[in-house]
Design brief:
By secondary structure, the protein is an alpha+beta fold. About 25% of the residues lie in helices and about 35% in strands. It has three helices and eleven strands.
Length: about 220
């Protein structure tokens, strides 16, 4: 009888120990998960109104998000900065001597950490025209880095978006401006007759399904290097 009692006591002790260990482990895991959630900053980033942080991560690159889209002729804003044509050209139509711009909007809608973004522009289609990349820049007070590969085909734009800017309402959004130029041919004066090559290439540049610039934007949380 005493052996049975001892056996039952041992069983109860084992059960009690298992319960205590399970409870302690659950509490530890819960606290650990809470710490991780508190440490990882929230980030919601939109590129031209598309939330890229809800898209799948890039395989093999943790916490890297990306989006791809096309810039077409309809995305360009054409400007006659030198007033060459005056009222003789329809608004937002392109002609030699004018500049065209398109924009990529980087909007950290709700972001608690600095982040780094990279934009790649495939400008091979410009080679089939006489359009030239002129500049890539941000609004006043902000800087970015960009380079063009040796084949003049890929433009890589990079920037670290600091948390200080993200929290400042007037600097929160980055509007990346890509500027191209339609130069005159061999003409010494904008008022001279444009050569035949300009005309042919210009017509080719603005047919339907013509000027397409594939864009890839990647973003990753930045904690310093």
């Amino acid at each position: 009888m005493k052996k049975k009692v001892k056996f039952l006591i041992i069983i109860l002790i084992v059960i009690l120990l298992i319960f205590i260990l399970k409870s302690t482990y659950s509490k530890y895991v819960g606290e650990a998960e809470g710490d991780v959630k508190a440490t990882i900053g929230q980030w919601i980033i939109k590129v031209n109104e598309t939330d890229i942080t809800v898209l799948p991560e890039i395989e093999g690159e943790e916490q890297v998000r990306s989006v791809q889209f096309q810039i077409t002729k309809n995305d360009f804003i054409w400007k006659d900065d030198k007033n060459i044509y005056g009222s003789n050209l329809e608004k937002n139509k392109a002609a030699p001597g004018m500049n065209g711009e398109f924009y990529i909007k980087i909007d950290p809608v709700q972001t608690d950490t600095s982040f780094k973004y990279e934009i790649k522009l495939d400008i091979k289609s410009l080679k089939e025209t006489n359009l030239k990349l002129e500049d890539v820049y941000l609004e006043e007070g902000k800087t970015l880095e960009y380079n063009v590969d040796e084949e003049n085909s890929i433009v890589t734009i990079t920037r670290i978006k600091p948390l200080m800017e993200i929290k400042e309402e007037t600097k929160c959004i980055d509007n990346v401006t890509v500027k191209i130029n339609w130069p005159f041919g061999n003409s010494d004066s904008p008022y001279d007759k444009i050569n035949e090559m300009d005309t042919i290439l210009g017509m080719n540049a603005f047919r339907e399904n013509d000027l397409e610039i594939p864009v890839t934007v990647k973003a990753i949380q930045y904690t310093g290097e």
